[in-house]
Write a structure and sequence with these properties.
Layout (H helix, E strand, L loop, with lengths): L5 E4 L18 E4 H6 L3 H11 L1 H11 L25 H12 L3 E2 L7 E3 L5 E4 L5 E2 L3 H17 L5 H4 L6 E6 L5 E7 L4 E7 L12 H14 L14 E7 L15 E7 L11 E7 L13 E7 L9 H4 L23 E7 L6 E6 L7 E8 L5 E2 L9 E4 L7 E9 L9 E6 L22 H6 L12 H8 L17 H10 L1
Antiparallel strand pairs: 1-2, 3-6, 4-5, 7-8, 8-9, 10-11, 12-13, 14-15, 15-18, 16-17, 16-19, 19-20
Length: 499
Amino acid sequence: MYPGTVLYDVPTTFGDYTPRNYDRAFLGPVTMREALYRSRNVTAVQAYEKISPQVGIDYAQRLGITSIDDRDIGGLSLVLGGFTYGTKPIDMAQAFGVFANQGIKTPLTSILEITDAEGNTLYRHNPSPELVISETTAFMITDVLKDVSTRGTASRLYNEAGGRPIASKTGTTSDNRDVWLVSYTPDYVLSTWMGYDIQKMGKVDSTAWPRRMSGEIMKQVHAELPVRDFEQPQGLTQEGICSVSGKLAGEHCPSEDTTSDWYPREHAPSSRCDIHVTMEVCAETGLLPAEFCPHLEERVFIQIPEDDDRNWDEILTEEDRLAPTETCGVHTERPPAPVGLRLSSSSSGDEVYLSWNYPDRQMKGFNIYRQTEGGERIKLNDELISAQAFRDENTRPGITYQYEITAVNEGGIESLPLLGSTTTDEPGSSPGRTPEENDNNDDKDEDNDNNNGENDNNDGENDESSNDNNNRLPNDNNRDTLHNNSGDNKDKKKEDEVS
Ligand SMILES: [Zn+2]
Ligand SMILES: [Zn+2]
């Protein structure tokens, strides 16, 4: 296990033991680094179980913890400090000193030398250093514990200690009855405990006290020393990793789930994240696209590999990040196209009036598109049009415009277009305005023919009412695209006759 190894901060029961986090919350997948600097209990127990309590106790004793009782062996709560007799600040200083000292343990002593009255040396402390953990392991632990002092459970310590690299670890028992902080720099190790030997005397009112005290002491003992960082040993490499899968970060891993961390060169992860995937989904429902989903969006999801039998519903805190397996049920049908398009242009050719019909049903509005020969297809409306009529005030005389009207339903799905085109009048060439019938039905369509008489556009004023009249035209027969006959002389004549 390394700082980038991913553990799962989720409700977990180990036999009959269910550890809780101090904040009663669960973070889901976390790297060991984050688990440690945020002091997650559940993941600590997971890691302890993974390496086995025996290995954990063995390391603790080699580092210098002397108070482990036989009754402590085997229980998982030991990893959270559940000792029968507790532990001692001096043992903590000894153990953390190993991390500060590149993995080498030098037994602590308070007597360095004894001399007699004549100056003869009677005793001299003879240190017997011993390599307890590897240099790279010590460095990785220290690097993680530096985060405790900057962004973890003792995040103010870095500044309070005078702004120098400082590693630390907090510890509290229930109700703040014991409040610990062990901190170290390359120069000093400081172990602090606050509490009452006689428990009924109460508790420490804040975990800030040992931190403030440590910060003040560290600042003073380092006052004359240059700021220096812990030395990075050979043999380590830094890799970009995915903090959900714990593998090398892949192209689909979102940035908030990507981090980088240290590995011994020979143990760096070699496979890429295979659980973050990018999928196209319906933007409204977030489900797999149905045939008519109006807006599709690429989103990143967690796709659980088939051979992964972990309970990811529990592991992930936001379930909606799991890749959808259902198809959108909202956007399954396209609304019918509008019908009965009528087009007419102003006598000066600088305006075109459109009107159409729509069967009575749930509808959000209409879109209008326009195209000229060889030109671009442009959308004329910014927002959906709720009326069944439109005035295009941006036309030029003597040009043929093709229009498309589409309907948009409540689900945001756009219908097939109703098509029609008209050639605008040229001033002078066509005295008086002649509205054109852009009726896609062929001449057999009686409804439209019957209504021609109502289409009272012939006064040249082009008032709104003419459009309104058109809107009322019943024209349910005409669902297909319209072939408009605007260029057709016969139609012009017909209109001329009307006028
Ligand atoms: Zn990933
Ligand atoms: Zn949809």
